[in-house]
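To: structure subgroup
Subject: Chain for Friday's discussion

All,

I'm putting the inputs and outputs inline so they're searchable in the archive.
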Amino acid sequence: MPRDNLEINEAIAVQFAQLVLDCIGREYPHSGLYWADSDEDLKPPRELTPAFYGCLDWHSSVHGHWLLVRLMRHFPEASFNAASKQALEQSLTPEKIQGEIAHFQRLPFFEFPYGVAWLLQLAAELHEWNHPQAKQWRVVLEPLEKLIAGNLHRWIDGLKLPNRTGMHSQTAFALGLMLDWARITENAEFIQLVENKTRQFYLSDRNYSLQFEPLGYDFLSPGLAEADLMRRVLPTTAFTDWLTDFLPEIPIENSANWLQPPGVDNPQDYMQSHFWGLNLSRAWMLEGIISGLANSDRRIETLRSTALHHRQHGLTDIVSEHYAASHWVGTFAVYLLTNRGLQKQIS
């Protein structure tokens, strides 16, 4: 995408939908972490997780399905809808979801927390979509959703410390996705659980410095993800005070140079391609932080300039032909461009 094209339209949506359509049924190459107790556990991905086996790994397959649903909701007459519907119909069948359930019954904490957080986002997307086909898919997915939500409840309840890295195991980002799902589906018990754990983990945090990020080949910012989670939990005044204590380095005067986006020199490098995701997720997290502040807050101009700077870098040349990025990064772009974390309502 050219740097001056920073909003979603159908032409851009077609490109991102095609990235997923190209990989949703592509089993190999595959990257997965599985526990094997016997030879019976060593099966092809399509047999272990029959609904979500493409796009290199389970979590990318799951959020690839989310992307298709999200774009179909935004562009109900788009050219990619027929192929997207066919792909979803092939994945979201009772038989294949039962295969997923069997896998989670054997490995209750598989893909925790990142992958299962996206599974809940897929359920939330279908829950919000007022369309007969979406309601059918929602019914099919619901048994897996309930199983994972129950497993997550036990996992979160027993969690003693947050993971503060910038990759899949990070706690704050996943809790944010889970909390959004719980609010969309009106799961009061789960909302209370996540809000309590968020306060327990992060309420007393002070003096975080973003100068040490990224910590490695991160695709998430530990500091911004934490702040984006806290704005979901705290009222405006409390969040304003908390942010002052947590990120005291945010300039009051407008300064886009406060936080610099990393570049991607080698798009064929699976790890370096994470920086596209980092720039995109930083952009939406900064926008989320802004949404939690009063309009008069003097930091907003800097936060908005920094978010725009990361959006520009994250979307430049993002539609890569190489599988290192193409199997996943479209999801981060669509999440940003459709304001998903800000809960903008669509039909």
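Points worth raising on Friday:
The chain has 15 helices and no strands.
The mean pLDDT is 94.

D.
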